[in-house]
Structures are given as structure tokens and as C-alpha cells.
Backbone:
């Protein structure tokens, strides 16, 4: 039986995500923006929380951890080792190359410094699922708060190399604003125009635009397309180093 996933809104524009292994009943919350929506989601699904997989230390990703711990005895909190000082009291600290299990679902830890220095994402290769936190968004990426843009770019390259069919769950619903920026720097991209039309319909109906896939991001996300001749031409950077194109894009988006 394939892994079950339940996504729901939290706070202003965060998403909560529950990942359940039907074989064992084990259920993980990917981050915990706030406790109440997670508890309601557990109620609705009838799933029992066994794990919380934390991607990074920001409040809008760990704000609900303490209350969930109190409400769900025995829950295991997994957090990045590099953020040990800022995410205290986790049961397990993980780093690059380690594997976490939620029931029978195996998730590989991938370190993606940039947005924060300790950020990790969780990749379930057998299920082709990626929980990307604030590293990769639909048509965008996180701000490089705690590392140079080049470091974030190296992190994103790891995600871009995952199989294109990989479904990607992200920390926020930023898709429409990201897409508007994407069109401004990659105006001739037909896949991007098509996607923006679809996204407008989804948002008009109040639907989430996530998950996305690695393949769709490779086709439409300017931050993964720094080698594209059309995008480079639009930026007047035809021969620049890819890392510099990325840093320039990140800078433009910060000011957008
Ligand atoms: Zn964040
Ligand atoms: Fe966030």
C-alpha cells in the first residue's frame, strides 16, 4: 500500500503535512507550524502521530512541536543535527545520508543549507516523495538567510537531480507570487505560461497548488533553470557562471 499524505493550511500561508504508513499506522507530521490544525487533521484522518520530522528552526515550522509532544505521548521528534542548539530536546538528530523510518517508509536526510544553515529535507526514494520545507517552492526557493546564495544553489542542485517524477511538498503556498516573478525573468517559457494559467484556476477555486514535482520545477522554476539560454538572455547574463546567475535571480526576487 502506498504512503498516504494529508495536506492542510496552517498559520497565514504555511502547509501542514501528515505522512502515514498504512502497513503500520505510523504517522509523521512534517514540521509543526502550529499544533491545533495538526491535531484536527489527526482527528479527521484517524491517524496516530508517531513522529515529527523537522526541516529547520524557524518558528513557523516548529511552533507546534511542544504542544503536539504533550498531546501525543511517545511521539518522536527528529531534527537536523546542525540545528541542535536551536531545536532543543529532539529525540533524534540527523545529518546528510542518514535514513529515518516512519513505520516502513524510509526517508533519506538531505542537508540543504541556505535558507537556514541547518536546513534538511526528507526524501522517500521508494515512494518518490520529497518534503522540501523552505528550500524549494513551486516556481521559487527560500530566501538565503543564513548562507551565501551560492550555498543555497548547491543545495537546490541536489534536489534538481532527484527523479523528475518525485512529488514535492513545500512549507508554504507562495506559488502565485513566485510564478509572477518567474514570468518576469523567463517570459518566453511556454511551460511556465501554461502552469500560471492552471495555478490561477486552482487559487480561484481556493485549492492548494502543491504538491509539485521535480520535473515540473525543472521546466518552470527559474531558480532551477539558470543554464537555460532564454532565461540567461532575458537577464543579459549569457556567459555568466551558473552560481552567479542564481545569486542574481535571488537578489532580484528579494527586491520584487
Ligand atoms: Zn523558514
Ligand atoms: Fe517557513
Residues:
Amino acid at each position: 500500500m502506498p504512503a498516504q499524505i494529508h495536506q492542510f493550511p496552517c498559520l497565514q500561508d504555511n502547509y501542514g503535512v501528515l505522512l502515514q504508513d498504512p502497513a503500520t499506522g505510523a504517522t509523521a507530521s512534517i514540521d509543526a507550524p502550529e499544533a491545533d490544525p495538526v491535531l484536527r487533521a489527526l482527528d479527521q484522518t484517524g491517524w496516530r502521530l508517531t513522529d515529527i520530522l523537522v526541516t529547520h528552526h524557524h518558528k513557523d515550522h516548529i511552533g507546534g512541536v511542544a504542544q503536539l509532544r504533550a498531546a501525543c505521548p511517545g511521539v518522536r521528534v527528529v531534527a537536523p543535527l546542525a540545528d541542535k542548539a536551536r531545536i532543543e530536546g529532539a529525540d533524534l538528530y540527523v545529518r546528510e545520508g542518514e535514513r529515518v523510518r516512519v513505520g516502513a517508509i524510509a526517508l533519506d536526510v538531505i542537508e540543504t543549507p541556505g535558507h537556514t544553515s541547518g536546513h534538511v529535507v526528507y526524501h522517500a526514494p521508494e515512494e518518490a516523495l520529497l518534503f522540501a520545507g523552505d528550500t524549494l517552492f513551486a516556481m521559487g526557493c527560500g530566501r538565503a538567510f543564513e548562507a551565501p546564495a551560492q550555498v543555497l544553489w548547491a543545495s537546490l542542485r541536489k534536489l534538481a537531480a532527484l527523479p523528475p517524477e518525485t512529488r514535492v511538498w513545500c512549507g508554504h503556498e507562495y506559488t502565485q507570487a513566485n510564478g509572477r516573478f518567474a514570468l518576469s525573468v523567463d517570459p518566453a517559457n511556454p511551460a511556465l505560461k501554461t502552469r500560471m494559467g492552471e495555478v490561477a484556476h486552482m487559487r480561484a477555486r481556493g485549492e492548494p497548488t502543491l504538491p509539485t514535482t521535480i520535473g515540473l520545477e525543472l521546466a518552470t522554476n527559474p531558480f532551477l533553470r539558470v543554464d537555460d539560454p532564454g532565461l540567461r538572455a532575458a537577464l543579459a547574463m549569457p556567459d555568466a557562471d551558473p552560481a552567479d546567475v542564481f545569486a542574481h535571480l535571488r537578489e532580484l526576487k528579494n527586491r520584487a
